[in-house]
Amino acid sequence: MNFVKRYLIPRLIQYLLVIFLGITAVFIIPRLLPNDPVNTMIGVMQARGQQLEPGAIDGMVTSLKEMYGLEGSWWEQYVAFWGRLFRGDFGVSFFQFPTTVNEMVGRAMPWTLGLLLTATVINWPLGNIVGGLAGYYSRKPWSRVVDTIAMIVRPQPYYIFAFALLLILGYAIPWFPVAGGTEIGRKIAFNWPTIKDILRHSFLPALSLVILGGAINFQTMKLIVQNVNAESFVQYAKLGGVTENRIVGRYVIRNALLPQITGLALSLGQIFSGALITEIVFSYPGLGGLLFNAIVNGDYNLIMGITVFSIVGIATAILILDLLYPLFDPRVRYT
Amino acid sequence: MAEKKRTILRTDKLKAFYILEMQGTQKIIKAVNDVDMEIYENEIYGIAGESGCGKTTLLKALFNDIVPPLRLVSGKIYYCINWDKEVDVTTLSPEEKRQLRMEYISYIPQGSMSVLNPVLKLKETYKDFIGSHLSGQSQEEIFELARKQIRVLGLPKNILDVYPHQLSGGMRQRVTIALASLLKPRIMIGDEPTTALDVVVQRGVIQMLKMIQENLKNTIILVTHDMGVHANIADRIGIMYAGKIVEEGSTEQIFGQPLHPYTQFLINSLPKFGDKNMRSSVPGNPPSMADLPAGCPFHPRCPHVKEICRQEMPDFCYPDENHRVACWLVGEGKHG
Fold it and tell me: Per the domain annotation, does A101 fall within a domain?
């Protein structure tokens, strides 16, 4: 009970406060952008060659403001915004009118989740286990080889690395498609050809994320392990003749993983903001590209829809991490 | 006392140096320099000396834990594993060395350091340490063994279910001693097990060590710079200076008639009841073991220094049975 009163409730209040402040910031910041969505829209219409009379433009501004929910002072908009948010309604997109934000996010989310979740679930254990072993056996030749590879791969700028993968495995040796989430015109359905097609298309983006993310996890873990290895409890276990398997697993890697668990939770939370550069390089559908276009167009509702997911995602990931952390490190306790 | 005691551990001209390479230059630290010692069955052997005189390195060598940068330069370490058969343990494979640990020779660390895995309950640590040596034991059998010993040693019953950080320093020290004695090793090596504990807890820890030794009739080699602890617990004491044993004898001999000037300084620095004089300490500082003075390494600090001390290291002479000392002042003319 003490835990609930002294830790859980204040922590939950903090969680809600973070989300509230984050969403408020998301409401204000797009409105400070120099591009006004109403003028942009009218500009787009004029560019398409529609003749608009000066009087008609005024009428259009009013009706666009009404449709976009941009009427009244910021305060009135803000209150209305929260009202809609509680009903789970983010409104309609300004630029793909009248598609709702929910529908657009809903369409992009599975792509992003599928790609980033898979990449994280593969690269985190892989990087940490290989990094842990390489750190413990840092004098062995294989450890040095893997370390050298990671040292070369890791500092590559992601976009260059991803582009190189694309050129090599998509163009020079055309094993994988160079763009898109599926073949053009394929209807998404739950059957084997579709799944195969999606896997083929997402292989290169996933590979790029796994390799670079894995290299980062590898290098961090290797360094942490080398530090933990010098700790007296590891030395003592060696002096006690504990078998090497146990020392590596339960003494070294187990303790070195503690900071890496924090990293995992944070990267899982960040999934909800998408992976912009991956999506651009591989022309892959997802939240990152959607958010980028929304910002360029000043599509307030879409920006807000995506960032609310991202804010809630990161805040929730950290909350869960905080609550679970005592399971990993008994020295952390909340009473 | 009259019967000849059986040797359980012996070193023969043991030299273990730290060899450090820094930017092409080699630095050699002679931490254990030509040590001959014999340690007997069923005794508590104390090793005393200032900080930085090579005590801990000697322990590492005796424990056969010689890993870079520490290197065995020459000499041998023998364990008497099956009574009449001596084994040169420096030639054993890593797996053979590992098996000897805990079962034949165990190590008691300074428990105030974080020597216990912080994320495991003590029973898990017990499981790792014992399970690595007794194969075919079920988890329950291991815990039963541990619980039985915990009862005998008078430790709290629930101790297996706590994490190391929930214990006091004294309790952690007791746990490491309990762990070290669990498989009834013939030799237990303690590296400053009482340091960093307050005197009341020190007393408890010393009593526990004594009790274990009396029950197991094994050998304890104890390193500490605390001469009071040695007076309390040790049967024999070796005084170390600059990587060498300079005097060795029974506790009575060392405290009753210390012969080496360094030993005399150590003993005289101890406070005595009713004596209000200032205690004098050893003048000067211990020499760097990377750059030892010629002759007897103690000569720059010795008040009785003679010409020969600056040139030659004296051999041991034996003023009494079981008492040996390496000093030119003692047993004139008998040095080999």
Answer: no
Q: Is B162 on the interface with A (CB under 8 A)?
A: no
For A277, the domain range is 109-334
pLDDT at A207: 92
Query: Which tokens belong to A266?
Result: 């944070």
> For residue range B151-165, what is the model confidence (pLDDT) as tens digits?
888 888 888 999 998
Closest partner CB to B101 (pick from A239, A246, A330): A239
Check CB contact under 8 Å for A243 and B129.
Answer: no
User: How far does A320 lie from chain B, in Å, by closest CA?
Assistant: 20
Residues in A touching B68 (Cβ below 8 Å):
none
Which of B132, B142, B177, B187 to probe the A interface (max A CBs under 10 A)? B132
Q: Which residues of A touch B120 (CB under 8 A)?
A: 250, 254
B129 interfacial to chain A (CB closer than 8 Å): yes
**What ipTM was assigned to the predicted interfaces of this complex?**
0.85
Of B101, B120, B121, the CB nearest to A240: B101
Residue B100 has φ and ψ, to the nearest 5°, of -65, -30
The CA-atom distances, in angstroms, between B141 and each of B116, B126, B147, B178, B320 are 22, 11, 10, 17, 50
Q: Do B116 and A236 touch (CB under 8 A)?
A: yes
What is this structure's pTM?
A: 0.80
CA angle A175, A179, A180 (to 5 degrees): 120
Q: Is the dihedral of CA A81, A83, A85, A89 positive or negative?
A: negative
Q: Residue A130: inside a domain, yes or no?
A: yes
Q: Using CB atoms, pick whichever of A232, A241, A255 lies closest to residue B115.
A: A232
Residue found by looking up tokens 């059986």 in the block: B6
A324, A209, A195: which is closest to A270 by C-alpha? A209
Is residue A104 one of the residues assigned to a domain? no
Q: Choose among A281, A119, A111, A286: nearest CA to A207.
A: A119
Which has the closest alpha carbon to A235: B321, B192, B64, B115? B115
Residues A115 and A77 in one domain: no
Question: Per the structure, how many domains does chain A have?
Answer: 2
Residue A131 lies in a domain: yes
CA dist list (Å): B253 to A317, B228, B231, B279 = 68, 15, 11, 21
Distance to chain B for A240, nearest Cα, Å: 6
Q: Is the pLDDT of residue A14 over 90?
A: yes
CB pairs under 8 A between A and B: 76
Q: Determine whether the interchain pair A242/B132 forms a contact, defined as Cβ–Cβ distance below 8 Å.
A: yes
Give residue B1's Cα distance to chain centre.
23
The CA-based angle A227-A231-A237, given to 5 degrees, is 125
